Amino acid sequence: MTDTSFDSEVSAKAADSGANASAQFQERMAAAGGRSGVIDTQRVSYLAGKVIKAINDTVLDDKVSYEEYNALKAWLIKVGEDGEWPLFLDVWLEHSVEEVANADREGSKGTIEGPYYIGGSPELSWNGTIPMRDGEPGTPLVFAGQVRSVDGRPLAGAKLELWHADDLGFYSQFAPGLPEWNLRGTWIANDDGRFEIHTLRPAPYQIPTEGACGQLIEAAGWHAWRPAHLHFKVSAPDHQLITTQLYFPGDPHNSDDIASAVKPELMLDPQDNPDAEGEITYYDFVMAPEQ
Ligand code: DHB
Ligand code: FE
């Protein structure tokens, strides 16, 4: 395969990821009964008015020209055409929404979900191996630990959903050509709340660059990188769901994640695995009771 054909394969996959993220989000909202219309009129008026005023203030303060206004209009149209609203919002806004949502929750830190979660991944036992292709590239990684309540009680039967990108930064069901559940799985903790997940260390991830979000990044002279990360949703009866991501020390993008989703509490400490090829890392999830 030549470099050019590899590049075009990569960018075709990235383009599909944007459109699929929009379709997936719409399906989930429809399945949840279409939540629009539940936010009351006063609140909509207050929030929409505040955002519109903030934009107007920027135009007035910074003397935005017609040329800049039309560039914005064209770009907003393109975000929709490219199906990139989930990408744009999850990269540049979700971190603040998550901060507000979890400000008072005790236990392990959360962070953004991002656009690529799919529920219902294959269920594995407490020490199962994530679904992957034969010869899936990447360093083997064992991710082991315990799920506990904030009072220290182990949570037997806790559910851990893990999803992560492959070695090229692609997520199954969003980039074409990958098996449906590649690098996605659900583990059920054992009677001690323990789990031992067998997977691969993910690679750093670049958000799709050839669509509207990439156009903004290029026009502004920014970069498109997220540090390598593992996404988790951890749930247990009578406890609040944790949606989080975990990161690897030394990744050059831990300090300038485009999605602003890295927190010091979310850093892993992988070591050479003494019992098998690859690495092992330990992390416990501490869950807050339902309020
Ligand atoms: C995006 C992708 C991710 O994998 C993630 O964790 C957050 C955001 C994105 O492309 O928007
Ligand atoms: Fe991600």
TrEMBL record:
ATP-binding among keywords: no
InterPro entries: 1_2-CTD_multi_dom, Catechol_dOase_N, Cchol_dOase_actb, Intradiol_dOase_C, Intradiol_dOase_core, Intradiol_RC_Dioxygenase
UniProt superkingdom: Bacteria
Pfam assignment, any one: Dioxygenase_C
GO process terms (BP): catechol-containing compound metabolic process
Residue ranges annotated for the Intradiol ring-cleavage dioxygenases domain, each copy included: 143-171
Recorded GO MF terms: catechol 1,2-dioxygenase activity; ferric iron binding
Keywords: Dioxygenase, Iron, Metal-binding, Oxidoreductase
Cofactor annotation: Fe(3+)
EC number: 1.13.11.1
Family membership: Belongs to the intradiol ring-cleavage dioxygenase family.
Protein name: Catechol 1,2-dioxygenase
Organism, as annotated: Gordonia asplenii
Gene field: catA
